[in-house]
C-alpha cells in the first residue's frame, strides 16, 4: 500500500471534528465523501411512540425542518429503520420531497440497519433492508448507512462485506457503525479497508452524563483512524436541558443516562452558571461540550424553538477552564452486554 494512500492517512480527505470555534459555516467531511455541519439533528422522536409521537405532530416537525434550513447552519439529520418502525424515515422522505419541490438545498441524511438475529443472509439481508429505507426516504442513494448495533449472528467481516457491496452498487455514499467498542470498530475499519472503503463514523452515547467514550480512549482511537464520532443522547434524553429537576423529573422510559435527577444537581448547577455567563441555554452548553471533545452531537428537536435552542451551541466555544470544571462534575457511565459496547 502506498504511503500516500488515504487509508494510511485517513484524515487527508477532510476534517472529522472541530478543533476551534464551531460555526454555522463549519463543515466536516465524513468518509471523504459527505460534508456535514458540526452538529446534527437526531430524529428518533420523529414518528416513534417512545417519545409520544402522534400524527398530528407532523406539522410541528415540518416547521422544525423549515426553521433549521433558515440560517441554523445545521444540514445533517440522523434516522434509522427502527425509529417508529420506519415512520421517522417516512417523515423525512416527505420533508425531502417538500424541500426539493421548493428548490431548497437538500440536507445530508444518515440512516441505520439493525442486524436482527433472523437477518443471517448477507449481503441480501442488508441490501433488502436498505432498499426499504430508500423507498421510505424517497431517495436513489443514501448519504450514510450505519450498522445500528454491534451484536449479530454474523461476523463483523461478513457485515463489512455487505456494507462494501452497498457502496459498490451505488446505493450508499459512505458507511458507519453505532455502539461499537474500540476493538469492534478496528475490526470493521480493517475489513472495509480491504475494499478500499473508509469507515466514516462510530455513533455512541456521549454526554456530560456518559463520558466513557472519552475516558476509555474510544474517541481518541476514532480520530487516529479518521473515524468521526457521532454523539447520540448529548442532552441525556432531556436531563441536561434545564427543563427537568428532582421535583419535575423526565417521563419514564428514557432509559439512556437514567440517573435520578437529584444526583445531577452538582452538574446542573455548574451548567447553569456557565450558561448564564455566556447568555446561552443549558442545552447549548451540553452540546458545545460534546463538540469541544471532538464529536458531532445529535440533538433532538421536535419544534422550531428546540431547533433554535440547539443552534445556539454554534458560533462560540467553552474555555478550557470551563471544560475542566464540567469534567469534574460529569458522570462516566458504563457499557452494556447487548447494545452499548462503545
UniProtKB/TrEMBL annotation:
UniProt domain NADP-dependent oxidoreductase: residue ranges: 39-329
Molecular function GO terms recorded: oxidoreductase activity
Cross-referenced InterPro entries: AKR, AKR_Detox_Biosynth, Aldo/ket_reductase_CS, NAD(P)_OxRdtase_dom_sf, NADP_OxRdtase_dom
SUPFAM superfamilies hit by this protein: NAD(P)-linked oxidoreductase
Stretches of the chain forming a coiled coil according to its record: none
Pfam families: Aldo_ket_red
Keyword list, A-Z: Oxidoreductase
Keyword Mitochondrion: no
Domain of life: Eukaryota
Statement: the UniProt record of this protein carries the keyword Oxidoreductase: yes
Protein name: NADP-dependent oxidoreductase domain-containing protein
